[in-house]
Every structure is written in structure tokens, then in C-alpha cells.
Amino acid sequence: xxxxxxxxxxxxxxxxxxxxxxxxxxxxxxxxxxxxxxxxxxxxxxxxxxxxxxxxxxxxxxxxxxxxxxxxxxxxxxxxxxxxxxxxxxxxxxxxxxxxxxxxxxxxxxxxxxxxxxxxxxxxxxxxxxxxxxxxxxxxxxxxxxxxxxxxxxxxxxxxxxxxxxxxxxxxxxxxxxxxxxxxxxxxxxxxxxxxxxxxxxxxxxxxxxxxxxxxxxxxxxxxxxxxxxxxxxxxxxxx
Length: 240
Prior knowledge:
- The chain is α/β, with parallel strands linked by helices.
- The chain has one domain: SGNH hydrolase (Rossmann fold), CATH 3.40.50.1110.
- It has eleven helices and six strands.
- The chain has helices at residues 2-21, 37-49, 63-66, 70-73, 89-94, 96-99, 114-118, 123-140, 161-177, 187-190, 211-221; strands spanning 57-61, 79-83, 107-111, 145-149, 181-185, 235-238.
- Strand 4 (145-149), helix 9 (161-177) and strand 5 form a beta-alpha-beta unit.
- It starts with a helix and ends with a strand.
């Protein structure tokens, strides 16, 4: 395990350079976030009927968030799930004023970037969108912590792992420099001894997590929900 992680760290700069300089069509870059309007309106309708707690813990992002039973996983925490399947980091930015800022969360758990890479966005573009999300949130909520769950390795998208690692490496560097940002490295515990994703962690589609997969995420996230930001710089959490 340690040798594989070291190799990943040693080659991170190489993949960042290659992935960001390679010319490729960025399918989805200009696609309208309006395709999620119906889902966002359902969230707003639910908020009107039963307003979620202010100052809670907001989980936002793509289907890995939507399918995560955060209420059962963290029963002692005031959690809010605002995942909408198929979304990208830019979508979280676009709808931040409707499903992020109004809740005034003290902590945000963000998972996105998986679909972005699959739709040919470059790692640099994913990084830029993450930075915009951080800027948008902190402009309104300057003390809110943001936990970025690393783009996960999966069976279905294993051929994209180098580009995913490049995006993760860029975001990880931001998190290590900002006390309000935390990078949650889910890759190491999700890989087997052969260096590939563990099949027993996924649903039949090889993309979405099953109960065993979420159990790993729960164990990584749980201690962070009550942790205070580091005095200097941010943090990066990974399984040893």
C-alpha cells in the first residue's frame, strides 16, 4: 500500500502537467445547469415544508452524495443531503445561492468531479470550478469549513484514474494551504492489493458505492465533523 501511494505522489506532478496541457474537447463545459432545475425546486419545496437546521452539516454534490444515507450514517449530527445525481462541480456553484448558502452550514461535505472527468473536462477545469465553489461559499459564509471528498476510483471509470488523480492533486494542494479546507483521501482504502478498485465496495454498475463502500467513507468523515480547522494551513486526511 505504502509503495503504491508513494508512486502516486511521485507522478502527480507529471499527470497534472499532461492532463492540463493536453488539448481535448471539454464536453459539458457549456451545458446549462438548468437541467437540474426540477431537482432544485423539489429541494426548495421540501425546505418550505420543513426548513432544515441552520448551522448544520451540508452534503452536496453528485449521485455519490444523493445515494448516501447521511441521516443514518451520522444520526447524532444535524445533516442535510442536497445531492443531485449526474451533477458536476460547476452545478454546485450554480445553485449555491439556493441549496447551500441559505442553510448557513458550519460544514460542507462536497463530492463532485467524477462526472466532470467522465465528460472530458480537464483536471485543471475541475480545479478551477472547485476554487469557484470555495470562493462563492466563503464570500457569504467566511467561517464555513469545506470537506472535499476525493474523486473516487471505480471499476466503471478506471481508465480515467490518472486524470482523476491529477484533479485530486490540484485540489489537495489548495486544501493543504487553507485552514477551512480539508481533503479527504478515499482512494487508498478503496483499492485492493492489486492496486485496482475493490469490487466488493460497488453496486453492480461498478460506479456507485454499496453499503460496504459507504462504510469506508463514513469512517473517514465521521471524526472530521466535529474537528476544528488547523491553526495554520489546511489538512489532508487519508487512511494509513
